[in-house]
Amino acid sequence: MKLSIIIPIFNEIDKIEMLLSNIANIKGDFEVLFADGGSEDGTLLAIGKRYRIIHSEKGRAIQMNTAAKQSSGDVLLFLHCDSLLPEDALTEIEGILDKGFDVGCFRLRFNSNHILMKCCGVLSNLRVKYRHIAFGDQGIFLKREVFEKVGGFEDLPLMEDYKLSMILKGRYKIGQTNGKIITSDRRFIEGGILSTMLKMQRLQYMFRKGVDINIIASMYRH
Q1: In which region does residue 152 sit, left (phi positive, over 0), alpha (psi from -120 to 50) or beta (all else)?
Q2: 146-179 burial string, b = 16+ CB within 10 Å, else e?
Q3: Given Cys at both, which of 13, 112, 180, 205 links 185, Cβ 3.0 to 4.6 Å?
Q4: How many CB atoms sit inside 10 A of residue 184's CB?
Q5: Element holding 203 (H helix, E strand)
Q6: In whole angstroms, what is the distance from residue 162 CA to residue 44 CA?
């Protein structure tokens, strides 16, 4: 298996060093592509020449699709900049693929001991198990042929990961690793944990019901 880790970035100077340290500790042979949407805060200087930087228009879906086209792996892992992988991530991914899955994700744990964040992580993992839907903060990975077959990420201002999962759900089973990805609770802290959880559930419901994604994106930003 040749793995390509694709990370969309835009002005991530406050998170990039921790991510770079995390990547350096991952065991195995893989390539990393940072898909940049026009960072101007020193993020690219921090990455330097350690990993490939792919430039594209701003927009997470566009950035990830652009980098995917320039990657060489037969398995693609899409990673958020504020999520950290376990050291044996490659072994975990291979274990899922060896079980016959073409699509998978990691079990999620937030970097918080708050009871609500623990509940949020558990519910996210149960969503994968019973609803077969994974979000980007869970580190979605899939075979390149599958990604290309479904047309990659749809160019949406928000929830491109949700839409991809909805498309995959009807055609592929999704495997979930035993190892956990650790994701930042920053957005929950900034917006209030319970308020953010309820807001995200509302926006996801609106998305499923076909509400204009631009309206949803505007509500998310505010």
Answers
A1: left
A2: ebeebebbeebebbbbbbbbeebeeebebbbbeb
A3: 112
A4: 18
A5: helix 193-208
A6: 28
Q: Alpha carbon 203 to chain centroid distance?
A: 18
Domains and CATH numbers, the chain: 3-185 (3.90.550.10)
Phi, psi dihedrals of residue 149, rounded to the nearest 5°: -65, -35
Q: What is the pTM of this model?
A: 0.93
Sign of CA dihedral 16, 117, 215, 68: positive
Can you spell out the DSSP letters for 45-96? HHHTTSSEEEE--SSHHHHHHHHHHH---SEEEE--TTEE--TTHHHHHHHH
CA distance 11 to 16: 9
DSSP H or E segment with residue 6:
strand 3-9
